[in-house]
Specification:
EC number: 3.2.1.-
Mean pLDDT: 93
GO biological process, one term: carbohydrate metabolic process
Cofactor: Ca(2+)
Number of helices: 16
Largest sheet: 3 strands, antiparallel
Strand order of the largest sheet: 3-4-5
Family: Belongs to the glycosyl hydrolase 47 family.
Radius of gyration: 22 Å
Strand content: 5-15%
CATH class: Mainly Alpha
Active site: 118, 251, 359, 385
Length: 500
């Protein structure tokens, strides 16, 4: 029987549905390939003008080293981007980067102070992710070499690491700007996944012991209102100033509690309990709805609420979505919050002239909600957190709006966005004012643009079996690690970038 239902005479409903699906597939495949072209443009510019340096300055075609890595040329963009190249199937470029890692990545040559946190999430995380994808143990060896240089930072009375290491001198210190010699929650609380996985793949317990000592200390320390403050003195073991945020200084600590539970195949119940209690506390004390109906997290400073949200905090919409689909009891509470907060972050983009989001946005003025009120917060530095939440909400809800928002962000076909304002002849640059129709560029192609922003964009337009969320967990730097089913450290060696 022929059932009429298509647009053309004689077209069956089945034929029509097939044609719609094919059209949709072709549309998203086109978009996916556009993101691949963006990755090629960014990578090739770096390779042509800054190879072996940390990042590209895409306006002046010079090298950018970055103070958090001691201003040493350590191939940051290579290591951070390798798994993105592999996932996208850009194998020629991947092999060139892999060879550089094998021949040239050497932290013994680093000088100045390096951030323990940034080195962990970008280098150790990037190397271990490529190992997980390829089963090439060279990457484990390199990750172990890097981690060993960081270990002196953990030699404190509490086990809470210092923020910086000077490899050439074998010394450690905290950031000079941190109050009262404190370590930062988002830094010492975001080492668990990388160090734990490194212990698993090397068989050496020292790395896991270091991060478990951090967790043990945080679990037992008194927490007023069950809140984790952003500053903790590693010598006295006491909290510093009464400042709590899910944005800068706090953000990824909360992320890693949930993800430690997920990557253990939900066996790490201590991490889950800490996450549940921490989230309940920040929701109770710091979650607000503006007069205009936008849901956001403020910042708690002593008893004062700063009604401002960081771009960095926009990751939490995606985190709540991930939590919702992995915890049936949490779904009705956290999925609506995931959508509401991500909508707020989207509004921070569409309320700018460029349709790019500011570094921070305020709710203090009801006539200018989700808008930066301070000039320094008007910058956009290629950050991934908003598109990261689009990715998780697309994967968990299948609501097409998140794909459309991602496309608007990436390409100026529908709105003014990253291709129009950030692209240069050799790469992509941050901009200094998202509210300016002709913004100046900051001349830095951040490594996380290749590691995170472009990866999440690519995955939004990819089938769900490309890095499926029931088999992989993304680190804070968007490096995928395998879930440890039944306690195993890995589940396959992949010989093709299409086999995930």
């Amino acid at each position: 029987m022929v059932v009429q239902g298509g647009d053309r005479p004689g077209q069956t409903t089945l034929d029509y549905n097939k044609s719609v699906l094919l059209e949709e597939h072709n549309c998203y495949e086109f978009r996916r390939q556009k993101i691949v072209q963006m990755m090629i443009h960014a990578w090739d510019g770096y390779a042509n003008y800054s190879w072996g340096a940390n990042e590209l300055k895409p306006l002046t075609n010079r090298s950018h080293l970055g103070s958090v890595f001691g201003r040493s040329p350590l191939g940051l963009s290579i290591v951070d981007a390798l798994d993105t190249l592999y996932i996208m199937g850009l194998m020629d470029r991947f092999e060139v980067g892999k060879q550089w890692v094998k021949d040239s990545l050497d932290f013994s040559k680093a000088h100045g102070t390096l951030s323990v946190f940034e080195t962990t999430i970008r280098y150790i995380g990037g190397l271990l992710s490529v190992y997980a994808l390829t089963n090439d143990t060279m990457f484990v060896t390199k990750a172990e070499e890097v981690a060993d240089f960081l270990l002196p930072a953990f030699n404190t009375p509490t086990g809470i690491p210092l923020a910086l290491v000077d490899i050439s001198r074998g010394t450690s210190q905290n950031w000079p700007w941190a109050p009262d010699g404190a370590s930062i929650l988002s830094e010492f609380g975001t080492l668990q996944l990388e160090f734990e996985y490194l212990s698993i793949v090397t068989g050496k317990p020292i790395y896991l012991e270091k991060v478990n000592r951090i967790r043990d200390y945080l679990q037992q320390i008194a927490k007023p209102g069950k809140l984790y403050y952003n500053y903790l003195n590693p010598k006295s073991g006491e909290w510093g100033s009464r400042f709590v945020s899910v944005g800068a200084l706090g953000d990824s600590f909360y992320e890693y509690l949930l993800k430690a539970w997920l990557i253990s195949d939900k066996a790490d119940l201590v991490a889950k309990q800490m996450y549940d209690e921490a989230m309940a506390a920040v929701i109770e004390h710091m979650l607000f709805v503006s007069k205009g109906g936008l849901t956001y997290f403020g910042e708690l400073k002593s008893s004062y609420i700063n009604h401002k949200m960081d771009h960095l905090a926009c990751f939490i919409g995606g985190l709540f979505a991930l939590h919702s689909v992995n915890d049936e009891e949490a779904y009705n509470k956290y999925m609506p919050l995931a959508k509401q907060i991500t909508t707020t972050c989207h509004e921070s983009y569409v309320r700018s002239r460029t349709h790019l989001g500011p570094e921070g946005f305020s709710f203090k003025n009801p006539d200018k909600e989700a808008v930066a009120l301070v000039g320094a917060e008007s910058v956009y530095i290629l950050r991934p957190e908003v598109v990261e939440s689009y990715f998780y909400l697309w994967r968990t809800t299948k609501e097409p709006i998140y794909r459309e928002w991602a496309w608007d962000f990436a390409v100026a076909y529908v709105s003014d966005a990253i291709e129009k304002y950030c692209k240069t002849a050799s790469g992509y640059s941050g901009i200094k004012n998202v509210y300016d129709e002709n913004p100046d560029k900051d001349d830095v192609q951040q490594s996380f643009f290749l590691a995170e922003t472009l990866k999440y964009l690519y995955l939004i337009f990819s089938p769900d079996d490309v890095i499926p969320l029931d088999r992989w967990v993304f680190t804070s730097e968007a490096h995928p690690f395998p879930i440890r089913f039944n306690g195993t450290s890995n589940f396959a060696a992949f010989n093709s970038p299409t086999q995930f």
